[in-house]
Amino acid sequence: MTNGDTTGNAAQPLLASRGLVKAHGRTEALRGASVELRAGEILAVTGASGSGKSTLLHCLAGIVRPDAGSVTYAGRRLEELPEKRLSELRRTDFGVVFQFGQLIPELTALDNVALPLMLAGAGRVEARARAGEWLERFGVRGQEELRPGAMSGGQAQRASLARALVTGPKVVFADEPTGALDSLSAEQVMTALAHTARESGTAVLLVTHDAQVAAYADREVRLRDGAVAPLGVTA
Amino acid sequence: MSTRHILLGLLASGPSHGYDLKRRHDERFPQARPLAYGQVYTTLQRLVRDGLAEVDGTASDGGPERTAYRPTEAGARELARWAGEIAPPAPFVTNEIFTKVVVSILTGGDAGTYLLAQRTAHMERMRELTAVKTAPGTDLTTVLSADYALNHLDADLRWMATTAARLTTLTAEVRTA
Amino acid sequence: MSTVVSDVRLARQLVRGSDRREWWRLALTAAGAALATGFALAAVALASVPSGFTVSVFHGLASQPGTRSGVIAGLLLVLVPVLAFLGQCTRIGAVHRDRRLAALRLAGATPWQVRRIAALETGLACLVGSAVATVFSVLLLLRLWNGPTALTWAGIALVAVGVPVLGAAAGALALRRVVASPLGWVRRVAPRTGRGPGTLFLCGLVLLAAVAPLAMSSGHSAGDRVHWQGPLTVFSLVVALGAGAVWLAGATARFTGRLLAERAGTAAPLLAAERLRDDPYAPARTHAAVLVVTVAGTAFLCIRHAMLTELRTREWHLGADMAYYTTGLDLTAAAVLVALAITLCGLAVGTAESLTTRRRALAAQVAAGVPRTVLNRALLLETALPLAPALLLAGVGGMAVGTWYSSLTGDGSLPWTALLVAPAVYGSCLLAAATALPLLGRSVRPGELRYV
User: Fold this and answer.
1) Would you list the domain boundaries of chain B?
2) A50 shares contact with chain B (CB less than 8 Å)
3) How far apart are CA C210 and CA C229, in angstroms?
């Protein structure tokens, strides 16, 4: 390995932001947030409501372009990529799990999970077979042919995890993935996410306001007023 | 919570000797403070004295001589009474963190920094407990006891967050009083 | 009375505080109401013309009672796509309106109060449209005809008031689900079964079967007055045709959805097919109008061809000028084109509406990296897939009518242009749906992902 190769270097973060600024209308959601995510690590982003957690996730995932600052993923500057390339990156290298809404209501759970594979060029039969394996892995059994509206929140969210992970992404972005779940379902979803991520070496950026969810992470970054707030120093 | 009742409870499933009781306790209640052997021994003596347990017999099995105990009729009754009794819900509020915050304000210290550090320590412990409970093959007993601690730590964290947000008002109140 | 006043005030406050989508709904509702009023007024005015009175416009076409009732029937038929358009317009931003009214219910409003507010909102928009149309129609009427009868005035008043009243009633009716449950904002509307239009279709057929023989028989004996049987036949024909078209559109959508959902190999057809299968009756109203226009257009071209051939062969026998007949044909052609234009507007509005309603889900898809081209394609396929078989059927139906007419009157030849109607309508429908695509780009903003 040469020194010039930065993408595979363990010391180099996989995804990093420097001085991100983003305003929604007149309110500044981010005011210079700098965060680093290393390959294979689970990082929790915590903070009060309105501290800019979701906006940070959107910027890091290339969903939103920041007003100022930069995002670097595997040596590439996201702000320099055109929308088409960003979309492709989100499809191939990233996975997203939101609180709600990433499953298409008209598709069955199986087709929902198969969709990213089909978009990557896999045939329907093959995509559905692989999607079935992932659903089974996340404990969604006997509900493959149900539509999200007919599933319980926990089952639907596990199907969402399967959808986010089915393409073997490098980073999964999870925005309050357990926000709509009871604590037992939340525990099952988080355990499934943490296990799979550690097993496959997928990095996870976990946005949450719930300390019990943040405890699944290896590390925590706390946001306050759109910037990273210091963590306390334990003597 | 009394060691007497825990030992009586463990004896209810069959006669046991002291070392066996200690081992079973530590197994059954992981994450709890482990019982000291001396404490098991003295507690068993007291149970016999109060007529709640009696000596079942002694055996040596080739090793050192061991005395096995079993609960008496009175012991079984006492155990049933205790198990059905409601645990008093927080009769006294003993909150070390709050006390430290107030003392810190009174002595002109930095309560905010203290709360942040405490928060970090809490989070660290929560990550540990989460790792324990999500490790593959963990039994339900361990998961439930870890959950208990996690929920309490979470409650502390929430309390600390609201307290940190109201430190200015609290400082004014404590200093004028 | 004071409750109505307070309801009006509340409705006004709600409208004033609402966003752009709601203004679109109100504006388009008013436009649709104006169109409906205009056509209905023309029909009423013509119907009230006393016998023997010469109407100077259109080469005296409206002077003859026979052709006049034909024109009236044509005007009433044009009302079908107009009403479909109006129905589509009232759905714009309906999800938000439903949520808002559900919030009103939660805040303690009674079901009737909510219904009144919704009815007022739609009714007032319709009133504006109908008032504008009425004023202009009356001005035009007075220029053309200096002696309108009392019957004309009564008819005009009836239409001017009737359109907003019907609009208000439809607005209240559309709310029945929200009113039933104040938690309407979490509701998941059960897919429509299609039984409603099916039943209506049968009712219309029964009515038609009952009335048509009467109209036929009285047509011979009666003099030159327009009888009640005629309009009633037209009315039942309109009901049967409209409901039948809705049912056909829904059924083909369901059929293609089912067929393709199993077989789709790539993402876009899968998305489109599953959406069709999930709720085949959602686009059925606009698609129904497309079908009616296609049948009418195809049949019209055949009939026109037959009539012109016949006219040309008998030209030297005929005393009346050719223009008398060709004006009638041109007028009908114009009516069909107007109907097509209105229908295409309705289709574009419907596509835009389906996008804005789903914009949060679409934003999530884009965030997950689903390419916009796939979403665009799925959106177009949603229109293209069900319309292909439905338009094929409509084209065949129109040709059947045309062949029948041609075999009755003339040499039985058919114009090849009639075959082009269905493909032309198909193409213009896709273009109309494509006008909504830029909206997809605009409505799919990551901002929609917040507050989920």
Assistant:
1) 3-84, 96-176
2) no
3) 10
Angle at C18 (CA atoms; ends C113, A53), nearest 5 degrees: 115
Asked if A230 has any chain B CB less than 8 Å from its own CB, the reply is: yes
**Could you tell me if C182 and C106 are in contact, meaning their C-beta atoms sit under 8 angstroms apart?**
yes
Taking residue A98's Cβ as centre, other Cβ atoms within 10 Å add up to 27
Which residues, 6 or more positions from A157, have their beta carbon under 8 angstroms from its beta carbon?
A97, A177, A178, A180, A181, A185, A189
Name the residue among C278, C371, C446 with its Cβ closest to that of A63.
C446
Chain A CB within 8 Å of residue B42 CB: no
- Number of neighbouring beta carbons within 10 Å of residue C300: 21
pLDDT tens track for A161-204:
999 999 999 999 999 999 888 889 899 899 999 999 999 999 99
Kindly report, residue by residue over B102-129, the tens digit of the pLDDT: 888 888 888 999 999 999 999 999 999 9
Distance CA A25, CA A3 (A): 43
User: Quick check: A149 and C188 CB within 8 A?
Assistant: yes
Nearest Cα to Cα of residue C70 among C350, C288, C307: C307
Please write down the long-range contacts of C320-328, taking CB distance under 8 Å and 24 or more positions apart.
C321/C59, C323/C59, C324/C59, C324/C60, C324/C61, C327/C58, C327/C59, C327/C61, C328/C58, C328/C61, C328/C67, C328/C70, C328/C71
Sign (positive or negative) of CA dihedral B65, B71, B72, B75: positive
Cα separation, C248 vs A156, in Å, equals 35
pLDDT for B24-80, tens place per residue? 888 888 778 888 888 899 999 999 999 999 988 887 777 777 888 999 999 999 999
**Helical spans, DSSP H, in C56-191:** 65-89, 94-106, 111-144, 150-174, 176-180
Q: List chains adjacent to chain B, taking adjacency as at least 3 C-beta pairs closer than 8 Å.
A: A
- Chain C interface includes A53 (CB < 8 A): no
| Amino acid type, B51 | G
pTM assigned to the model: 0.79
* Cα–Cα dist B74/B49, whole Å: 12
> Would you call A30 exposed, middle or buried from its count of C-beta atoms within 10 A (0-12, 13-18, 19+)?
buried
Q: Which residues of B touch A234 (CB under 8 A)?
A: 117, 120-121, 124
H/E stretch holding C2 = helix C2-16
- Residue indicated by tokens 């009157």: C409
B3-84 has CATH 1.10.10.10 classification: yes
